[in-house]
Amino acid sequence: MRGFRILVSVLLIAVALAAPADAGQSRYAGYLFTYFTGEGTPDGEQVYFALSQGNDPLRWQAPSGSPALRSTVGTQGVRDPFVIRSPRGDRFYLIATDLRMYGRDDWERSWRHGSRSIVVWESADLLRWSAPRLVEVMPETAGNVWAPEAFYDPARAAYVVFWASNIYPADDPGHVTTSHNRMMYATTRDFRTFSEPKPWYDPGYSVIDSTVIRHDGEYYRFSQDDRGPGGGGSTPCGRYITEEKSKALLSRSYDLVKECIGKDAVVGGEGPLVFRSNTERKWYLFIDEYGGAGYRPFETTDLDSGDWRPSANVQLPGKPRHGTVLPVTRAEYHRLAAAGRL
């Protein structure tokens, strides 16, 4: 522990010395990584935290090895954790898929008769979190709710929460007919009460794991083209990432930017997460190589190009799977580092 504290002190000093002169650019001092590690171990489907080495999003401090958060509700397993900062900056919400696959090999059941709820935690400081709560967001016609994410919409003064679901006819309570995952959404102000779900992205074949970033008045959406075994046939871009953009978050017709992202570097990719550098005009896209080592980082200086290049000199915290990278302020970074529980 003493060695850890010394390392933390050195890192904090390095962050201060490396801070840019532009005070507006120096709001953030690092990143918090939230993720799960897979279904191969009893604790793999819980929430893990890792802290970056200062403002370097490609190098991370080794976490403690224990989950930061455990689900005691629903299936008592969680995947795909996503954390969002409130618009006022005084609260954080962490949402996740209610799914435990450890010791099982029945993915078909998980999309036909899986949980229709999401797991929610909230915190004021990223250290002390509420007990998890289970919130149902889809009716009985749905077979699953996967990879929930959220984006705050100031025009609605509410969060838009979106996820992937298979949906079956009302006269098929056994969910035996053919369906496919499509992206649904609902709105909420408190992550307790949600509006009725509506379709957002349904190209007629299976898509999952959408994530969004906004830049210069455009929303950029990244999703996995899930065509493949169980996903509605095959295609050259199946099981890779598609980038689109739109001026309206909830548009039903985003414009295509690029397909097959990650195909030359990973063998099957899902769970994209995207964020902007704290220190320069650069964006990072992490793609979860689910059958391999977990996340692989890519980067670009032009979101409109769709040209994502694999990052070099990467040091990730073990084998992280589908999660979130959240920029944190200097005060937040200091508190997280000093806690030593990552």
Automatic annotation (TrEMBL):
User: Keyword Glycoprotein, does the record have it?
Assistant: no
Read off the InterPro entries from this record.
Answer: GH43_arabinanases, Glyco_hydro_beta-prop_sf
User: Keyword set for this entry?
Assistant: Signal
Asked whether the keyword Zinc is assigned, the reply is no
Signal sequence residues = 1-23
Q: Which PANTHER family match?
A: ARABINAN ENDO-1,5-ALPHA-L-ARABINOSIDASE, ARABINAN ENDO-1,5-ALPHA-L-ARABINOSIDASE A-RELATED
Write down what this protein is called.
Glycosyl hydrolases family 43
Q: Which organism is it from?
A: Amycolatopsis tolypomycina
